[in-house]
Amino acid sequence: MAYASLQNLMDNLKKLIHGNHHPLINNLNPLIVSKRPLLKRLYQELNSIIQTLFSIHEDPCNPHELEKVRNLKKRLKDDAEEAQDTIDLFLSALHFKNSGVSPTSDVLKTSLDLEKVLKSFKSMKAELKAINIGNMKIDTSSRIKHVSQYVAGTSYTRNPLGMKKPSDEIVVGLDRDVEIIRDKLTEDTKQLCVVSIVGMGGLGKTTLATKLFNDPFLKYHFHIRAWATVSQTYAKRDLLIQILASIGVQEDLEKDHDSKLREKLHKKLMGRRYLLVVDDIWSIEALDELKMCLPHDNTASRIMLTTRLNEVALHVKPHGFVHALPCLTEEESWELLKHKVFHGDECPERFIEPGRQIARKCHGLPLSVVVMAGVLANEPMNIDLWEEIACSISSYHKGNLEILALSYHHLPDHLRECFLYLGGFPEDFELVTEKLIWLWIAEGFIKEAGNRSLEDTAKTYLMDLINKNLIIVAERNVIGDVEACKVHDLVRELCMQKAKEERCFLKLDSPPLSYQLRLAILYDQQRRIFTNEDISIMNFTLFPARTIRSLLCFHTDIHSITSIPCSFVLLKVLDLQKCRSRHFPHGLALLVHLRYLAIWYPFKFPHSICKLWSLQTLILHTSYSTTCLPDAIQGLLNLRHIWSDTLIDLPYIGKPMNLQSISSVKFEQGVDNLHKCFPIIKKLHLSCFKNEEYHLELLPYLETLELVGSGFRRNRIWFPTTLKQLTLRECCLPWSDMSTIQLLPNLEVLKLSHKAFMGTHWDACEQQFQQLKLLKLGW
Questions:
Q1: How many Å apart are CA 529 and CA 507, to the nearest integer?
Q2: What subcellular locations does the record give (predicted)?
Q3: pTM for the whole thing?
Q4: Crossing angle, helix 383-394 and helix 349-360, to 10 degrees?
Q5: Cα separations (Å) of 744 from 650, 771, 772?
Q6: Around Cβ 713, how many Cβ atoms within 10 Å?
Q7: In 3D, which of 560, 557, 612 has the Cα closest to residue 586?
Q8: Which of 109, 176, 614, 779 is the most exposed place for a label (fewest CB within 10 A)?
Q9: Is the pLDDT of residue 132 over 60?
Q10: Contact 425, 531 (CB under 8 A)
């Protein structure tokens, strides 16, 4: 867990030493120049410790030395974070001094007091030498490497999120269960019936429900199929919105009252035979309220639910059916483990016995088997390792959660914080892959590797966690790339347990008392807050919580939201997009280290955002129909991604920006200089309302392009050869332009909808579409 903290500190030390054009660092500032000898010694000591400490294999067979190494890592992390706080407070103070701003608190430092940290690093270096390294195996495998070495050696190349293991669809021991439930769902009973699948967490209830939901016969039998997930924090409104969205209702459902949502659902299902899957339901009340919203019109419709609770499952009687999902047998567990590790190949003879021991000690829980397979499949084939893991499992007596913990201990250091971070999100929360990657980058979890972008490296990290069976793919796009992901409840529980031990984040699922929150932040030195509840920020304005680097809120409001910048002056991540407050945080310009900002704003675009020099990602939600960005936005040199739920009206851009993606953008000033404004843009959604020429072939990195025309003006467009995905709507292009599009060498997806082309005849030739995987024609 020390890995990300150390890498962040190393990066900042390099910037201070070399003055790498950091907007907050004046290379000639005497305070910085005088401290550079100290900064260099600090960098050298830290680098020496990292090289030794992170090359030691954590051997559970040597618990005494293992404990020493882990304690050293913890102390190193604490000292690195203290040094990082000191540096960032100094840089903030420097920025305020140069800009004439006077912050309300004296927490900001005007000196770099790092001698104490340097002394501590030297002490740890001596302790490390004293550890009996002869008894600790130095890890020469690929399991623990520096990030650049790790990524350079990965097998993922052009499109890491498109990689899919052949074992993804392997299911063992469910065939009989599928047959039983399929028969119950299709039996000749006209009234609305409920089928319950009940069993402990990790047993495969959702997997079984998914298999049935996608069953070809059931797809044919039911007119409408819908899926919703309830979880422990049940809200009827959210459930109705999920179901309506699942059956294709496209309106802005968030604005509807509950009665309107019930009316829409009832009307949509009336007279149709429907199958409604309700996954992970925890209360009888939720089931009863749902049934009241559904039509009971004798169409042989069915509700299929999954639950851990017998009382919920049994509530469907007398007219329902309860299916108790059994654990896997020892043989089924072994078959599943083999399939996941060897992908259908034979298991070598000498690995069979330890493999069977591992499978047996998973106690018939498929999730444990799959996660352990993820550990084994991603390690070198080493009989000692298999026997070590089999031995380790036998030493645990706390159930399946501790079995899952083995997968965490076998993660390489650079993946651990990425993994634990997932535990901060609400239960059953679907994470949009793109935004998760932006968050990881902002948090400092992702480091550059060679010529690869941070985003590509982060995709590789995500794919590693998916292939280790720690992350579930929730949604893929039409060509198989991962669009959304989530974690199983038990894996999330593991994340929260380990995150608490490592002080990775503070998770608030119930409103804390003011003094409790203050104690947790100030005395436990927490770095991040994830909250599903309204919390009061007022208590931190006089004594800011300088350790807090991230605040992610999944509640609709935060009390005293305007006090956030003064209370958490070193924030890197601020996600308030769920908060529908009529107020906006005062003094946002104080957050000069902020990298990720997601907000909802009710009025004009807040110009203070344009002073956030470190900002990388900007996500905007608004009640306006258009987001008008000011001229000063082009001064944000680190800005990589802009996303908005409305059309973005860009000003005239007079100098190059480092944007990689931008959503739904409109150019009032024309786009003749687009290639000069956005030279490295990769993803662009462009509204072409003027009758102009669009020379997009000058964008050498553009891979994803969506063009929306006016519907009546004919556009002239030139496309770059780098395009992989192209969507055209209302562009009124002549069909002759298709001869150019079909020759694009990298094009994989082509979507054409209403008035993309004018005319009724497309004269296709034989030499076309070298890489095309999907052609979608719509209206």
A1: 6
A2: Cytoplasm
A3: 0.82
A4: 20
A5: 29, 9, 10
A6: 14
A7: 560
A8: 779
A9: no
A10: no
**What secondary structure does DSSP assign to 213-234, as a single string?**
HT-HHHHHH-SEEEEEE--SS-
- Residue labelled with tokens 């078959």: 335
Q: Give alpha helix (H) positions in 523-665.
A: 564-567
Q: List C-alpha distances in Å: 650 to 116, 395, 597, 640, 687.
A: 48, 61, 18, 15, 11
d(CA 530, CA 486): 16
Class of residue 523 by CB neighbours under 10 A (exposed 0-12, middle 13-18, buried 19+):
exposed
Closest CA to 78 of 121, 108, 35: 121
DSSP codes of every residue in 337-392: HHHHHHTTSPPPHHHHHHHHHHHHTTTT-HHHHHHHHHHHHTS---HHHHHHHHHH
Look up tokens 């994830």; give the residue. Answer: 530
> Contact, 715 vs 733, CB < 8 A?
yes
The Cα–Cα gap between 573 and 43 comes to 26
Query: 218: closest CA among 248, 182, 188?
Result: 182
Contact between 532 and 555 (Cβ < 8 Å): yes
Q: Which of 579, 616, 612 is nearest to 595 (CA)?
A: 616
* Bridge partners, 596 (sequence order): 573, 617
Cα separation, 650 vs 686, whole angstroms: 11
Name the least confident of 19-33, 120-134, 476-490, 630-644.
19-33
Between strands 482-486 and 472-476, the pairing is antiparallel
Please give the Cα distance from 65 to 357 (Å, whole number): 27
Better-scored residue on pLDDT, 710 or 753: 753
Cα atoms in the 13 Å half-sphere on the side-chain side of 169:
4
What does the alpha-carbon distance between residue 485 and residue 763 come to, in Å, rounded to a whole number?
A: 41
Q: Confirm if 60 and 392 have CB atoms less than 8 A apart.
A: yes
Looking at residue 154, its pLDDT comes to: 39
Torsion angle (degrees, nearest 10) of CA 96, 97, 103, 109: 100
498 three-state secondary structure: helix
Measured CA to CA in angstroms, residue 606 lies from 23, 433, 589, 600 at distances of 21, 27, 10, 11
Torsions phi, psi for 261 (to 5 deg)? -65, -45
Lowest mean pLDDT among 205-219, 404-418, 556-570, 695-709: 556-570
Give the HSE-up count for residue 415: Cα atoms under 13 Å, Cβ half-sphere: 23
